[in-house]
Amino acid sequence: MSASNVASPLARRRRRAALLFLAPACLMFTAYVIYPIVRSVLLSFYNWDGVGPSSFVGLANYRELFHSDTFYTALGNNLLWLALTLLAPPAGLAFALYLNQAMRGIRLAKSLFFAPFVIPGVVVGLVFSWFYDPAFGLLKVLVGHGIPVLGNEHMATFGIIAAALWVQIPFCMILFLTGLTGINPEVIEAGRLEGARGWSLLWHVVLPQLRPATFMAVTLTIIGALRSFDLISVMTGGGPFDSSTVLAYFMYDQAIKYFRYGYSAAIAVVLFLIMLVFIAYQLRRLLRTDH
């Protein structure tokens, strides 16, 4: 019997075992990710209140959406969230480089820096709401007078994003700390022997080895910025005058308050497509740099 005949049944058994191990994950992914996406796309072409029969309306939900002032306010706020929360990866990298040292008390410092990330979003929203309170908040004590941050339509979104950054920066810091522990010290030493110091060493030696951590930090920050909901719900409820609403909260508002599930699904589809564009762009950049 030839070696190829022996290897063939063994290869088939390995493929069968791999498929059996993958099957539960594939089924769950289909049930909890693929099916909801397809169902939302189909629902966006219908008018449905969640109880009675649905009626097909074609692109009417999308036409109404693109003629809505609230939609453009929410989209602009999402882009503002995206621009400002992308400060989290470089800030997280800076903290990670600082904390990646063998010094006394560094474990305690790491725990304190990471603490905001493990606090639930609702609690973070309440804490920052108290912080901004113009009557008794800590901001009033620091500044000397009350500032209605969350009551001002021009300041509310920035106040919420500051709370989001307080949580997102430690998360990015942990990703980069994990990447820094995996860097080969010999590569760093070789870079120093070649004359790389300071910024040159960071840019040409350290950052290329942190590419996977950078990809995860940027991608998860983008996803978090585009699907931001909990802080807005707790701190402003989309107000004042819908000035701080985003697409995720706008979608929730239309479905839960007004029972417009088809219209809400249309918002969800638009949000999904925006996220898909950003994630595909980041993934393409990562794959291109790997080659």
Give the helices and strands, then pairings.
Blueprint: H1 3-43, E1 46-47, E2 55-56, H2 60-66, H3 69-85, H4 88-99, H5 106-118, H6 121-132, H7 138-143, H8 156-181, H9 185-193, H10 198-209, H11 211-226, H12 230-235, H13 247-257, H14 261-290
Helix pairs in contact: 1-14, 2-14, 3-8, 3-11, 4-8, 5-8, 6-8, 8-11, 9-10, 11-14, 13-14
The proportion of residues in beta strands is under 5%
Number of distinct helices: 14
Basic shape:
flat
- Catalogue the unreliable spans: none
pLDDT averaged residue by residue: 87
Cα distance spanning the termini: 41 Å
Number of strands: 2
Major sheet strand order = 1-2
Radius of gyration from the CA trace? 24 Å
User: Helix content range of the residues, please?
Assistant: over 70%
- If you consult CATH, what is the topology of the largest domain? MetI-like fold
Task: Explain what this protein looks like in three dimensions.
By secondary structure, this protein is an all-alpha fold. The protein folds into two domains: 41 residues; 222 residues, MetI-like (MetI-like fold), CATH 1.10.3720. Helix 3 packs antiparallel against helix 11, helix 4 packs across helix 8 and helix 5 packs across helix 8. The model has no long low-confidence stretch (mean pLDDT 87).
